[in-house]
Amino acid sequence: MVTGKGGTGKTSVAAALALGLAAGGRRTLLVEVEGRQGIAQLFDTEPLPYEERHLADVPGGGEVRALAVDAEEALLEYLDMFYKLGAAGRALRKFGAIDFATTIAPGLRDVLLTGKVKEATTRTAGQRRVYDAVVLDAPPTGRIGRFLNVTAETARLAKVGPIKTQSEGVSALLRSPMTAVHVVTLLEEMPVQETIDAIAELTSFGFPVGRVIVNAARPPLPAGRVVSQAELRRGLIAAGLPADRDTVAGLYAEAQDQTIRRELEDSLRADLVELGLPLIELPLLPEGVDRAGLDRLAEALVRAD
């Protein structure tokens, strides 16, 4: 599972992780549950239906499939699976019963979403798992603890029946060695603080936290002091570039700002190291995140692992 504060690039990291895990002829499933169609946008494809679809091929014969889990469709599937309400269940939609059920019991929605992820993770064909790995583009850090823990709460409240059984099964999987919750951040104050808070919350609930992934990390600045304005002017002249007062002053101010910014990044990085979890840094992609960029991130994830 991949979570992170909004804007940190968690969907891109989840997609890159799915690509990396599919290397060597493996098959992975990339799942989203927030209804944003972020995966489709990232891969420049049609909106994903509630159906597992081929998304990308990986060198070596690997494949990534994708699924956008819809709470309403998941509820219909649940009613058909456990209560044999195929056509009758679909008829409920006409009366707004599906919306009513997921609205009056908000936790039910998350139970259905995680339940579908669990089903895909444990599904077998010919005594072999259908997927070598399932990657969930999970809700952001502000909601991840509540999202994952709702199954345990539901299992505690439900005394008997399929809902209790399913909730207990999902809760057990989410806390098992099969699962890891990776947290994506940027080297900025708010994302780092949310990362620290989310890891504390996940740990308190008993969820296995995997790695802290620093996205869009910039290469370090050259060692040494910031050059003076006179040195900048001489360098510009030597390079045949404009060396007027405003240009030199602007470059000097930018260099000072960058130095201060990098010192802050170093401090935030140290805060993340203190968490005692494996830390992975992914490069900044100035050209944007396209398929080539995702492959580059996937290589960095595999190499770091």
List keywords for this structure.
305 residues, 4-stranded mixed β-sheet, elongated, Rossmann fold, alpha/beta, 16% strand, 12 helices, single chain
Strand-helix topology:
Blueprint lengths: L1 E3 L5 H12 L5 E6 L5 H5 L10 E6 L3 E7 L2 H13 L2 H7 L4 H8 L1 H17 L1 E2 L2 E2 L3 E5 L3 H17 L4 H13 L6 E5 L3 H17 L3 E9 L11 H10 L6 H29 L5 E5 L7 H14 L1
Helix pairs in contact: 1-12, 3-4, 3-6, 5-6, 6-7, 6-8, 7-8, 7-9, 10-11
Low-pLDDT windows of residues:
none
Individual helix count: 12
CATH class: Alpha Beta
Proportion of β residues?
Answer: 15-25%
Mean pLDDT reading: 87
CATH homologous group name: P-loop containing nucleotide triphosphate hydrolases
Describe the global form: elongated
Going by CATH, the architecture would be 3-Layer(aba) Sandwich
Strand arrangement across the biggest beta sheet:
1-8-9-10
The helical percent reads 40-55%
Structure explained in plain terms:
The protein has 305 residues and is of the alpha/beta class. The protein has a single domain (2-77, 107-221, 276-304), classed as Rossmann fold. The longest helix is centred in the C-terminal third of the chain and has 29 residues, at 245-273. The protein has helices at 10-21, 38-42, 71-83, 86-92, 97-104, 106-122, 141-157, 162-174, 189-205, 229-238, 245-273, 291-304, and strands spanning 2-4, 27-32, 53-58, 62-68, 124-125, 128-129, 133-137, 181-185, 209-217, 279-283. It starts with a strand and ends with a helix. It is elongated. It has twelve helices and ten strands.
Summarize, please.
It is built from 12 helices and 10 strands.
